[in-house]
Fold this protein.
Amino acid sequence: MSPSAVAGLRLELSLVEPVLRTAAARMWHSDTGLPGRYQHYLRSMHQVIRASVPLMERAAARCETLPHDPVARPLARYLRVHAEQERGHDDWLLSDAEASGTAPGKLTGTAPPAHVAALVGAQYYWIEHSHPVALLGYIAVLEGNAPAPGLAARLARETGLPPAAFETVRLHADLDDGHSADLDRLIGGLPLNRTQRSLVAVSALHTVAALAELFDRIATAPHASESAP
């Protein structure tokens, strides 16, 4: 996939990402429901992020069953390295929950709802039944839409929760720009065929739609008007 093809993917995403930004703005709207929405966000994002390393490890393992695929070896190498970079990030969310006054067990003790399973589960399907390169579309969206700088400080100020409750938001704002640049270099250097390029794009567009739905559900949840405990 050439640099121009990477630019094409980013252009496609730029056309639909306003939907994601609008949903995020609704979720982070300043009102009395913000503390409750933040608690919901922690639970939902833990359900998403705890799947990140297993997804990458499974995709890398699938690559290793494709010894004659020119995409597989460099993709597996990237995924193994990136899995180590992401390892433990779900624990950050548990620490944030504890700092916010929520028992970490409330994040780990509930079954993920269908819309979270749809966001993450599509990647398992494509990894197993199409090609593990699909995961790059998912990663491109999650890391290309990092929290805005300053969001953690604003949330702490407006919710009244301690700054320690927003470490994941702050850290991802700092880290994900560099990860996105690494991903663009990888995609630009992979010899993707037309089917694989299409799969990356379809995965990315699905991720935008599913993540926007997740944010919308947080913004409109019945308990969104309640304050945090």
